[in-house]
Amino acid sequence: MDVRLTSEQRQLRDAAAKLADDLGPGSVSDLADEQRIARLEKTVASTGWRALRSDGASGVEVAIVAEEFGRGLVDVPFLGPLLADDLWSPPESVPHWTVAVDDRAIDARGARQALIVRGESMLASAVATATTGADQTRAEAALTGVPKLLGELSPAQVTQWRALALVSTCADLVGTARGAHALATDYAKVRAQYGKTIGSYQAVAHLLAESLALIEGSVSVLRHAAWAVDAIEPERAVQAAVIAKLYCARAALTVCETAVQVHGGIGNTWECLAHVYLRRALTSTELFPTSLEEIDRGLS
């Protein structure tokens, strides 16, 4: 595989990064700014990125946008509608759909319907009002009513969709780790102790360097898994995605906890964005969870 991004993919990455930087929350208080969220929602909707797969985008391009949105803590739906779009094109009269994981609609702000993949059956269920939980940037909702059968999927479709779901959440984890690391690095450049910025001390510099090494490793396994979604048979693509998800989840947790540590006492306060990154990393880890045993089964 060629890990280099094409010029079009670099342009997509730059556009997603600019959107996240311009309209993503820059502070914890921004999470409650409904005017900002409305502008962000309108802008994301106008990009058409929630329908990347039905527009012919590859797993790599999905990962590019998901990573930048994770880095910028973009707090309007993306992963849920994107994964629903990969399997189903709902009527235009229905507001954006999302997907259900473990009988909970994820990324459910503004959603009225959730797509459920149960075995090889594709079902739809209405959803209740969305609420935020541990993750302050994404909402969940309970399913309501009796699910309606939409159609049947082939085993290959189900397997490839799972690979895409793992890659999408994996990319969100990589972006979240990058955002937390940048937050900690910027803080270390300006916070002074004993007459010097804390970033000049080896104890802090080494923590940040180790986090950067974990991020670079995460980018490597993510790129391979994202490429595999469309380039190789679905079973092997899932195996690559499982490995990437396990590595990136553990790396993101370490990087986000390190960001809290670098901030010192202020890192444990509500006003510091570090905990928002940590919360997002924890919830992305639990979306489509994986285990080491799953890798062993795939290799046997």
TrEMBL record:
Belongs to the acyl-CoA dehydrogenase family. InterPro entries: AcylCo_DH-like_C, AcylCo_DH/oxidase_C, AcylCoA_DH/oxidase_NM_dom_sf. Signal peptide: none annotated. Residues 168-284 form the Acyl-CoA dehydrogenase/oxidase C-terminal domain. The keyword Flavoprotein applies. This is Acyl-CoA dehydrogenase-like protein. Keywords: FAD, Flavoprotein, Oxidoreductase. GO terms for molecular function: acyl-CoA dehydrogenase activity. It comes from the Bacteria. SUPFAM superfamilies: Acyl-CoA dehydrogenase C-terminal domain-like (SSF47203), Acyl-CoA dehydrogenase NM domain-like (SSF56645).
